[in-house]
Write a structure and sequence with these properties.
Strand content: 25-35%
Shape: globular
Bound molecules: guanosine-5'-diphosphate
Strand order of the largest sheet: 7-8-6-9-10-11
Helix content: 25-40%
Number of helices: 18
Oligomer: single chain
Length: 632
Amino acid sequence: MTDTYGGPRTGRRPGGARKGKGKGQRTGGSRVVAVRRSAPVVREPVALPPVLTVAELAEKIEATPIEVIKELMGMGIMASINVQIDYATAARVAENLGWETLEDVPEAVQAAAADFESRRQEGQTDPDAVSRAPVVTIMGHVDHGKTKLLDAIRQTKVAEGEAGGITQHIGAYQIETQGRKITFLDTPGHEAFTAMRARGAQATDVAVLVVAADDGVMPTTREAVAHIRSANVPIIVAINKIDLPTANPDLVKQQLSELNVIPEDWGGDVPFVEVSALQRMGLEDLLEVALLVADVHELKANPHKLASGVVIEAKVDRSRGPVATLLVQSGTLNVRDIVVAGATMGRVKAMFDDRGRRVRRAEPSMPVEILGLLELPQAGDTFQVIEDERAAKQIVEQRQAQKRAESLTGERGIKLTELYNQVRTGQTAELRVIVKADVQGSLEAIQAALLKLNDSSDEVKLSIPYAGTGAISESDVSLAVTTRSIIIGFNVRPDVAAKRATDAAGVDIRYYTVIYNLIDEVKAAMQGMLAPVFEDVTDGYAEVRDTFRLPSGDVVAGLYVLDGKITRNSRARVLRDGTVIHEGGIRSLRRFKDDVREVAQGYECGLGLDSFNDLRVSDQLEFFHREEVARN
Ligand code: GDP
């Protein structure tokens, strides 16, 4: 927050510090020319607002709009004169044209940000802070019993003394045990957790990792560990399904130890609790451990303040309008408060607790559903109460403009080429790599070879936040965003959801089929010598719905185009269970009896591949072409 709204700073080098971008973004030559041209002029840094139009920027830096547009094009951004751009982008343009910049943030926005930051950081230091309930998220592999566990806890603890008490789903609930409260976020799985983190929110104090005792550590278990670790949140392991005769808790302990999640009774620092969600065994122990972990971390907040916190869920209710579940993290939220949540606001008209009861106030760690927001915020947006309605409006306008500008230029991921640029301009850098491979053997070989690169590089430190087998998933992409990693796929491809997420987030995914090439390219980037020449550009995705054998013996597949298009000149990759089993050209592409040059999304077609006759129903095909990438 301070980074974005910390107010004007003098002489900050734009772009570079925040996104690791900007410096050396263009080829060395033209950048040097730009700087040299302006070198003799001694100017005051120019103050730029968080969002401005191309025309406004041009005026402020005494350039023509055309010059600005050209600079933007050099950065790969197509913008016309009235398009709004954000500060980071404007600053890069200004720098290229020889200006130092500083960010000029409106007073109301600045004050709100400072206020939010101080509310968030009060924790231990605020003398009025009192202890608050821990907020717990349950994560783990599918079918290991997350939902069952959440339900079991809710039923034993919420319904107590409340015959027939109906709990309604608002995305979070609070229970009471030993006279103390615990808040559970009710969206199991780490998608919610990472989506929030990707938006800069941290709602969870304690993560409960559920592992089924009969199934052990699975891919999503590993992912969850990586997510929890990168968020620096304490873990409790719940070994579930302990009632089964095939339960093997020791195996779970051993497997998790290999991931450095070491049980306390094995000398580590992670509490393990054996439970059966089905038979409601061990739940008390689990809750007690959660409270103990909370005590160790001395969770506190000051309830005597205006409220702030995070949006857990939001949806439009047909009769009630936008409804949002908020988790109060600090202060007390009251009915009639003016709330700014993400890029929207509203006055709280009514408030309900997790059992649908009307409440008038909500204290720290309490989840509540509120009515009154004008539009839907997003899960993971932060919210805060603002006293002055005019200031609230100003903040919202500002954020909406920022959002628009970011959707034009906003890339949150990091690219391998950026690393190369950082190294070339003498900045030390860290390269984080998420590795996905088709089989465990290659995965291990790749990990070892990548980490070994550290021995020969002083400038760049390489680390691997997560490595696993299987297709590249949406969760890998969000982990890449939160940890600012690139993703390396070895003989694997992203599924359609992951591909969309990648495009939206601007994460760099690199695919290899030869380990040597993979290592070589990463090594080159680390040494600032990378010259990425070709990049695969995806044309579309299709699915095999049917197959036919022609009299010639060749197999033709009936395809349905799921996304994008297929062109006659595309190359095709055949994916079975997320693994690439063939790559090659197209032999024939037909609609009905006619040869066609292109087939678009939503249509069916017949397809034969060069030298591959093993297409099967439900194989996924990715179509792509190679493009030469300008070194930027
Ligand atoms: P989730 O995908 O992690 O949310 O898993 P669910 O809560 O849906 O549980 C998956 C399956 O495991 C369901 O059939 C549950 O009934 C079963 N299950 C969950 N907990 C237990 C348990 O403690 N013991 C046994 N035997 N089965 C369980």
